[in-house]
Amino acid sequence: PPPPPAAARVSRASAARYLGGGLVDADNAGGRFAGSVGVRFTVLPNGRTGNCRVTRSSGNPGLDGTTCNLLQQRLRFVPATNDDGQAVASEVGSVYTWGRTPGRPR
C-alpha cells in the first residue's frame, strides 16, 4: 500500500504589531499594578487574536483580564500559512509582564 499522505505543514504566526497607546495609564488603572500574566490565544487567519485564556495568573484578576482584552483589541499578527500559502488559525502562548508607572502609588 502507498504511504499515508504527509501532514500539511503550517508556518507560525509572527510579527505582532501593537495598535494604540496608553497601555499603562488607560488600561492598568493608572499604572498601579505589576506582574506577569501567562496567556494562550488563537491567531486568526485575518491576523487578529481570539480565544485568549490565562494560563498563569498574575494574582490580580483585573490585570489578567486586562491582558487578554488588550491582546484581542490591539495586537495584530502576520497569520500562519499552510502549504498552499493560505492563512490559517494557529495557537500562540506567551508571558506578558506589566510594570508600575514610576511615581504612581502602589
TrEMBL record:
- Report the InterPro entries cross-referenced here: TonB/TolA_C, TonB_C
One GO-annotated biological process of the protein: transmembrane transport
Q: What is this protein called?
A: TonB C-terminal domain-containing protein
Classify the protein's membrane topology as the record does. Answer: Single-pass membrane protein
Gene Ontology cellular-component terms listed: membrane
TonB C-terminal domain location, by residue? 34-92
Q: Where in the cell is it found?
A: Membrane
Keywords from the named record = Membrane, Transmembrane, Transmembrane helix
Q: Which SUPFAM superfamilies match?
A: TolA/TonB C-terminal domain
Q: Which residues form a coiled coil?
A: none
Kindly name one Pfam family recorded for this protein: TonB_C
